[in-house]
Amino acid sequence: MEQLGVRPVAISVDATEVSRDLCRKAGYTYIFLSDPKAEVIRRYDLLHVGGGINGQDIARPAEFLLDSSGVVRWVNLTEDYRVRARPEQMIAAAKALQ
Amino acid sequence: MNQRRWNWPLWAGFVICLAGFATLPLFARFPVTRDVPWANFLLFGAGLVSLLAGLRRAFSQPEQYRGKIAGSILGTLSLVVLGAFCFIVFYQTRQLPASSGAPRVGQTAPEFVLPETDNHPVSLSGLLSSAIPQTHMPPKGVLLVFYRGYW
User: Fold this and answer.
1) Band of the pLDDT at A27, cuts 50, 70, 90?
2) Which of A78, B40, B83, B139 is most buried by a 10 A CB count?
3) A83 pLDDT band (50/70/90 cuts)?
4) What ipTM describes this predicted complex?
5) Which chain B residues are within 8 Å of A67, Cβ to Cβ?
6) Number of C-alpha atoms within 13 angstroms, CB side, residue B123?
């Protein structure tokens, strides 16, 4: 994604400390944002009530590719949250932004 | 009356099956064992093998080993636990909200401000306009990845 000039941003209900540890361990170049009250998650209609391991409200997995003016060019709403897919469509959509 | 031996594979098998189920949240913390819960499948496999070995002993050598009744009960309970496990892994985790209100292609993504890992607030408009290290220019796009979180 970075090679295509796209900035990846990860958002979850995890607190900043939790994301910081994750970020440090994995050496991610992602920007990690923390949405503990799920306010933005709700605004994007991604709330999964009680979906967390301990019954917490969390985000359902989803990805949005935005162009430089913030318009959505590609969306991925996963069907099974245990599986992470890296679709070619996202890469194609990112290339279309160039 | 002969003293029959304790049929430990029955109990070990049951305990291992319980562990296969109970460790789902534990293994779910690590991506390598989460997406396909093979560690849990292995535990169930081992547990069921042990149970079957114990049942074979109990029914084919009843004069040496106890466990026909206990084995049948434990075997049934283990299958129930396996059933619950399969329900969760193959069905429940696919039950996701419809999210029909999520931004669609062509719509403008809603603005937001959220803290980054250093607690510094970051806005979507800032993400779209501030320079990225690779090019020292604003990004061509932003990929928002909403994820479940690890805790």
Assistant:
1) low
2) B139
3) low
4) 0.90
5) 140-141
6) 6
- CATH fold, domain A2-95, is Glutaredoxin (3.40.30)
Give A 16-55 residues with CB within 8 A of chain B. 16, 18-20, 22-23, 30-35, 39-41, 43-49, 51-54
When divided into structural domains, chain B yields a total of 1
Do residue A9 and residue B149 have CB atoms under 8 angstroms apart?
no
Contact B40, B20 (CB under 8 A): yes
Tokens representing A71? 């318009």
State how far the Cα of B37 lies from the Cα of B144, in Å rounded to an integer: 27
Which tokens hold the place of A96? 């279309």
Is residue B89 in a domain? yes
Chain A residue at shortest CA distance from B130: A7
Is the distance from CB of B121 to CB of A41 less than 8 angstroms?
A: no
The residue assigned the tokens 């994750």 is A22
